[in-house]
Fold this protein.
Amino acid sequence: MKNKKILVTGGAGFIGSNLTLTLQEKFPDNEYFVMDDFSSGDYKNLLGFKGEVISEDVSCVNLSDYFKKLDVIFHQAAVTDTTVFDQDLMMKKNVGGFKNVLQFALASKAKLIYASSAAVYGHSNPPMIVGQSEMPANIYGFSKLVTDNMARKYFKDLHIVGLRYFNVYGPKEKHKGKMASQIWQLYLQMKAGKNPRLFKDGQQARDQVYVKDVVSANILAMGSSESGIFNVGTGQTTTFNKIVEILKTATGDNLNPEYINNPYEHYQENTQADLSQTQEKLNYYPAYNIEQGIKDYFKT
Ligand SMILES: NC(=O)c1ccc[n+]([C@@H]2O[C@H](COP(=O)([O-])OP(=O)(O)OC[C@H]3O[C@@H](n4cnc5c(N)ncnc54)[C@H](O)[C@@H]3O)[C@@H](O)[C@H]2O)c1
């Protein structure tokens, strides 16, 4: 892939920066742009990036002020704090941002790969399957489901792929603070010599996916022959007790969980991605299981 103009929105964020830097390394003969309003992202994530960085809000920018044409847009920008309950803000930024990018992609015939979320499934039972039990439990998940529904209308007109990430963890997530992965939070507690705190009884489980696999899914989506919406996880589910055990091995710390009462009435017990469509249509097979991902993450 050469001489393409590629935009990553939300490129100063966790997933966007991992994606941007990997694209630059793998396909150096393209022109790269990042657009980010730095509402949650951090410039430090982009150290080493050689392209142009535009500080703009994707929900209201006029993209044609900056670009005549783009070949590929990776749309990662969104309000990612799932505890934001301002419904108007979440919809304006997430749905409005997606719509703005979609309209430009349609006009310039750019491929559009965008970040959706497992939050569209709410509290439904695993395995989570695209097209089934999509009942978001918060405004964040709802905003992602609305974008998926909008995207579906253009599958025939445009190369458009939505990727429903499950729980993503890995380097460059530090800036997210309380919104960073549970793996990072537990690691921080253990590094500080504290017992990792888990909700009773630590048997809640999640499909935890390493950011390098999420980047690979985006690159596969760029080359796919069909539009569609796909889950991006590992297809495996790991309890928080097990994560603590793996962290103990990876870090050499020997701290056992402290169990606390769960203040949330409707807490999700288990998430797990059904990957059959992602494998068939995108040829996506995660390279990192939970042990390999955590080992790679905390290797230094
Ligand atoms: N991290 C996860 O576990 C996870 C899971 C499911 C989906 N996602 C989705 O993946 C994408 C990336 O998430 P992340 O984890 O990297 O979060 P992040 O907060 O690190 O990244 C989001 C980036 O978008 C920017 N941004 C937000 N609103 C913007 C706007 N209106 N205009 C321009 N820039 C804007 C932020 O400044 C930030 O740099 C998001 O769309 C998120 O909803 C993430």
Summary: The longest helix spans residues 87-108. Helices lie at 14-26, 87-108, 139-152, 182-191, 211-223, 240-251, 276-282, 290-297.
